[in-house]
Amino acid sequence: MKIGRNEKCWCNSGKKFKHCHYGRESEQAITKGELIGQSKNIRSRKCCYVPKALQHECDRRIVNAHTVSKSGSLIEIADSTNHVYGLKINLANIFKNKGKLVPEKIGVNQASTFKGFCSKHDKQLFSCIEDHPFNATEEQCLALMFRSVAKELYAKEGSLLSSEVIKSGDKGKQLADQLSIQKFAADNQLGIKAALRELSDFKDQLDGQLLGNFTNNLSHLIFESSRSMPVAVSSIVSPVSDFNGTIIQDLGDLNVVAEQIVFNSFSSDGKGYVVFSWLTKSAIILGFVNTLIAIDKAGIFGALIRLFFGLAENSFISPEWWDGLPDAQKKKIESLIMSGVNPFKFDPKGLLIDDGVNFSGWNIDNIRKINF
């Protein structure tokens, strides 16, 4: 490869070659400590995801906002030391566990938090679900959605920043390795940027709903129980397959605009709820939801477990429920957590279908449909 010192660098950074990859193989390789430090800085950045029209009202204090209610849900399922099981997804922990994601004890003060709202708007937007029993009001369902989408935007923006850190991992390496690392990072960024565009468009819809610009563009499915839900979740995903194992959208094609569904599992006033929410116009998601409703009530909890751990990372488990599971069920959940980590072993068709591993500990008393 022959590039003039003053030409644009081959890695598409926009910098001149002499200020970018010239002599890269002789540079000091980035250390594990530096990688962990940069990762920590990315996870600690502060912002407020309130709609732009309200940003002038922000105060200066960014809080550790809970995506799953601490006062109701997390404390409801925590053990006597106020801990729940969850995934600690950070670079230091990934190094420690040799790339494996395993449920570990997390204090309820740290579980599900991110620095995504100022103190004023965290209180203003989510008081309806933090300070009041859940009654499936339009305001409460919208608040659940808004918080899940904000957390996912925060995570995806962090992933984009992390991909820039990955690019620095070619320091001290020969050209072939530099090319490989830069190609991997560039391909990764294409997917992240596509997801960010889709999430931003989704949030624009919620911003409009929050500001009262339009209504009745959201649909909700609610499972209710007289028992607390042992797994608390807050997530938004673009499912590839439904509960029958049918492929419903191809996320490998970046020209496809993915449709998304938000789901929240939580406890409130001693009762358990799972709330699915989506844009009413999303025909693919409506079909996805219908394959879940079609499952016999006794099998829905197992289907939810496959969904929670197969597609969501922001999940938290009751230690009492987890410790009481047979080994086969624990292994199933651990395999679900690792699904998709290795794309060569990932089977999207089989992810959500019943494979005979049953789960108990929560029953559905009522199913409510709103606006569909």
TrEMBL record:
It comes from Granulosicoccus antarcticus IMCC3135. This is Protein translocase subunit SecA. The lineage of its organism: Bacteria, Pseudomonadati, Pseudomonadota, Gammaproteobacteria, Chromatiales. Pfam families: SEC-C (PF02810). InterPro entries: SEC_C_motif (IPR004027).
